[in-house]
Amino acid sequence: MRLPIPNRSVALLAIAVLAGLFAAWTARKYLQDRARQLEADARVPMVERVVAADDLPLGTKLSAEHFAVRKVPAATASSDSMPPSRFQELVGGVLLSSLKAGDPILPVHTARTRRAPFSGQIGAGRRAMTIPVDIINSVSGLLEPGDLIDLYVSFEYQRRRITAPLLQGVLVLATGHSTRASGEAGAERAGGYTTVTLDTSPEDAIKLVAARQGGTITALLRHPDDGRPDQRAVRGDLATLLGVAESKPERAKGKVQVIYGNRTLRGIPGLAAIAAQAAGQGAARGVFDLPYTPELASAWMREAGLSEPRHAAPARP
């Protein structure tokens, strides 16, 4: 008996149905596996880390636009990887090696740019001298980088105490470790400092070294627009300076003094004291003018691009 031949269209339909069922089963299984994977991932602790937003070549100076954030399993996160809260620590660094997009950016990948040396703030022909702050004993808590000060020295000379201007218009370059470039003057002042650094010429630096060894230095703040030098100094003890010292009576001499016309007033006892009293008793009180006009350090003139001070002083004898 001859079997009937199945219809070709029916066979194709059956194959299509089987293929559809297999595809549906495969899709269902994939979705189930994906769901299980997502559930497993949800149970794994994740952390956010800073990664490269794009491909970054060697030598790139990092800024905020170079960073992206990616979640990674906490178990696989590198111990020195950076969380987003600390990305500022990487800003400004220079890459030591190239990175691909998505690579974590680690501190070892970067180098901080070196700050310009402090010696770069010193002008040509100038010197920076650091001295203990306790020597500057009148304005030690008020000095800030950029201030101008006058330095006075007190010392013994021929058994008399003399106080005279040493340096005037000296620029304060730094207080402790704080400079104008660092912008931390306020914090440094609040925390205190033990040294100040001054801008001086080589000659003035030598004077300052000698004054520290042989006398006491006191500083006075100077207004930045004050360009007038001061040559007033004092000598004598405190009683003389206050004008309360008793003058010793001159001993009477046996011979009558003959005054000649070629003798100066200073060489005639008695008349010199009268002349000093007529001049306002300046000599009696110990106030006198230096025999020269002190030159200003004028460091602020150098910063303004001027080669000479506004108030030029005559050459010292």
TrEMBL record:
Residues 47-111 form the SAF domain. InterPro entries: Pilus_assmbl_Flp-typ_CpaB (IPR017592), RcpC_dom (IPR031571), SAF (IPR013974). NCBIfam families: pilus_cpaB. This is Flp pilus assembly protein CpaB. The gene is cpaB.
